[in-house]
Protein 1
Amino acid sequence: MDLVFNGVDEPRVIVPHGTLKSSLRSCPERGGSDHTVNRSLSEIASPPYEFLNNDKQNIWELATISCPSGSPAANTRFSPRPQPRDLDFVRNVSYVKDTCQNPDASMRHGFIVAPNTLPLNLPRPDHAIPDYRPDTHYNAELDFPWTSKLNQLYWVGSTTGGNSQAHNHNYRLMHRERLVDFLNSAQVNITLLGRALPGAPWQSFRTSLSRFRNLFNVAFTRTVQCEEAACEALTKEYRFRIRTGADDAYKYRFVFDMDGNAWSGRYYTLLRSRSTVLKQASSASLGTSGSGRGCTTSRSVWIRRSCRRW
């Protein structure tokens, strides 16, 4: 028996749509016969494994082979639209979270644009993730009461998430770079809700994100996974700050957590804190985040009770 282990923090398991559909049809119905489960191993045909080296290149076709043939992601004639500079409301959550319905994602995430290491075939960016210890590196004595925290959104990190290349400036399409660029740009318009008087109907209106720049503390701390020329370009194009300890996030009321190469290892640590956690992930993650002082207290209790301890 050969056992294959994934030693890198990237999801990489996917089943082609035809194979998946056929396998689901052959599965026993819930509560019905399990004769297919009890077949001997000799009766089950196991196709050979194939190992491909797909790192540092766009893997969209591989990442979407489980999508139905009629879905937008499977349409080979599709050309990605330019990344919009303005931000509007999400009007259909299930739709925008469905990779098969959003071929624009082929140029929106570092794991798709140019994964740094991808030696196995058939990856998928939205598979479930393993358990994490909820209390890793969290020290309540270093945390602050909600009323003492800075009223800002905080995120700092390195340029992981993909392999940055100079000849095509592909880093501009990657998720971390897009976040840092977006929240530090003076040329972005956003849609907000407001009302003229208390009790009046809420109305959407457009405004410039630069009005709220003092509410964001978002920057890179170091360049990694990049060609030398790309590393130099990154330091010139994006905001960088001095690297600090992980406990620095506890100073802020709102902390943003996002993917690197895959899932974030500090997500559960942040959930234990007294800050409100905002989450971006391509992988399905366990957890929730509250909003405001009372919710952060109840959430920290929930995370201690709900997450498995190692």
Protein 2
Amino acid sequence: MASLVATLLSFPPDHYTVAPPTTAIYERDIREYVKQLDKVSASSFVRTVDGQELTDLLDPTRNSIAYLYTIISQLQSVASSKSKPLSDELWTGLSIFCTSFDPIQIRYVGNEFRRLLEHLERLARAYNTVSSRDADVFSNNNPNGFVK
């Protein structure tokens, strides 16, 4: 499990903050990172590490791709067990991610982002409305453009 956490936290590398990479290096690194994540089983993203959810160990503004993969796996886990409701922690994680993800990272995982949006659509249909606690995801105050 420690190796999974190390993999999740490996992008972006710390040296990017000291010396930003060229576009070609960034693209090479991010594509390699996505290949690594694609090899990880979905069930691995749902496990806890030392009693903490993986989303608690990730920063959605910095580790947007890892956070996206983790939250999608958590949503799939809830969807596959019909009796298990969406936890407040998962709702919070969704809200935080949708209001703070790095769009530059997310453009490299468009299919996964679409899967998240499809999950959100199914949730909205299932709940038949957007609750007040989730309204900020769809508000005009959201920098990533989700609007009512």
